[in-house]
Amino acid sequence: MSTQPVIEMCMSARVIVTCGTGGVGKTSVAAALGYEIAQQGKRAIVITIDPARRLADAIGLGEGTGNEIQRVPFDSTGELWVTMLDVQETFDSLVRDTSPTPERAKEVMDNSFYRSLSRSLSGTRDYMAAERLYDLCEDPRFDVIIVDTPPSRNALDFLESPERLARFLKHPIVKFLVAPSRGGFRLVNAAMQPVFKAISTVVGGDTLTGTAAFLRAFDGMEEEFSRRALVVAETLRSASSSFVIVTAPSPDALTEADHFVSELSRLGITLRLIVANRMPPHFGTSTAAEEHSLAKSQSGDLARVHELIAGLHDHADRADSDIQAFIQRTSAAFPAVSTAFATELATDIHDMDSIGALAQQLAAPPAQQ
Fold first, then answer.
1. Does residue 158 contact residue 49 with C-beta atoms inside 8 Å?
2. Of 278, 237, 232, 236, which Cα lies nearest the Cα of 257?
3. Cβ(123)–Cβ(156) under 8 Å?
4. Would you say the C-alpha torsion 154, 156, 158, 159 has a positive or negative sign?
């Protein structure tokens, strides 16, 4: 194993996926990994599929629009770019790319069901995150793509979304609804009237009509949708993709981190790195026991100072113990997993200087962490 597991990962991965609950600094870690990759002379892009603007705020960028890709200005031999997922723009672009004609693309995008699907249907963000990842993997401008997932227990849904989309497009009801555009409208319509009627009572006639019209306009495009989805699924499960769990020494964060570990194990995906972020620092070379003893032997302000330092040591020791217990549990499922540590910074991360400070901690050899 490399003495610098973060640098090794940054130099070998094509895709890096960061997972973690809210409040652990996951987005900052994603940006710091991009920073380190750029410092190593490679071209990295960080994409956040979280609708919040944490990434832009963390690196001090201004307002961006849509899927706009912005280069982060800082001194490095490589490049760092960032982008946010715009679901509507990504879906529209996918339709235009896969449509046989501009007219067909316009017919799909003007469809009422499509407009609802692309804006509000549960899971659409996951599908489009996978599609955006496909686009970035195909883009020769970038050596490494870092995916900043949302701070949610369902953040890994996008990992399964490609297969779900491919299965949906092969479903018999989809084939049936598309069939009228393939010359079988009268026969299928007559034979399947009871099915139409049953579905209409559940979703409403107008909704079903809009859905059928959408799928007929969509005819011929589903094969490319499926192909792209399965390419992403294969990429995420390949050796070129590295998964990172970001956590912090709090009970809630570690409980969620355990959940992510179990989900990755269930999905058959290897965890490459644990980032123990926001660790409390240790002060001086004394121990908590020594400081407690000194507090008892002193009086007044000096006793209170030693008691305060003892409390800081106690807090840091509990954090170390909790994190080490999590690492041991995780190592049982992923024996080759590496670990990086970062202490709580004095201020919130809001610019590239603070991102660089975090990156320096993450890239340090384990003995220095």
1. yes
2. 278
3. no
4. negative
> SS3 sequence, the chain?
CCCCHHHHHHHHCCEEEEECCCCCCHHHHHHHHHHHHHHCCCEEEEEECCCCCHHHHHHCCCCCCCCCCEECCCCCCCEEEEEECCHHHHHHHHHHHHCCCHHHHHHHHHCHHHHHHHHHCCCHHHHHHHHHHHHHHHCCCCCEEEEECCCCCCCCHHHHHHHHHHHHHCCHHHHHHHHHHHCCHHHHHHHCHHHHHHHHHHHCHHHHHHHHHHHHHCCCCHHHHHHHHHHHHHHHCCCCEEEEEEECCCHHHHHHHHHHHHHHHHHCCCEEEEEEEEECCCCCCCCHHHHHHHHHHCCHHHHHHHHHHHHHHHHHHHHHHHHHHHHHHHHHHCCCCEEEEEECCCCCCCCHHHHHHHHHHHHCCHHHC
Domains of the chain: 5-368 (3.40.50.300)
What are 186-207's pLDDT values in tens digits?
434 555 455 445 444 444 445 5
Confidence (pLDDT) at 273:
97
At 163 the pLDDT is 73
Spatial separation of the C-alpha atoms in residues 365 and 8, rounded to whole Å: 11
Q: How far apart are CA 25 and CA 327, in angstroms?
A: 18
Low-confidence ranges of the chain (pLDDT < 50): 1-2, 181-188, 192, 195-196, 198-205
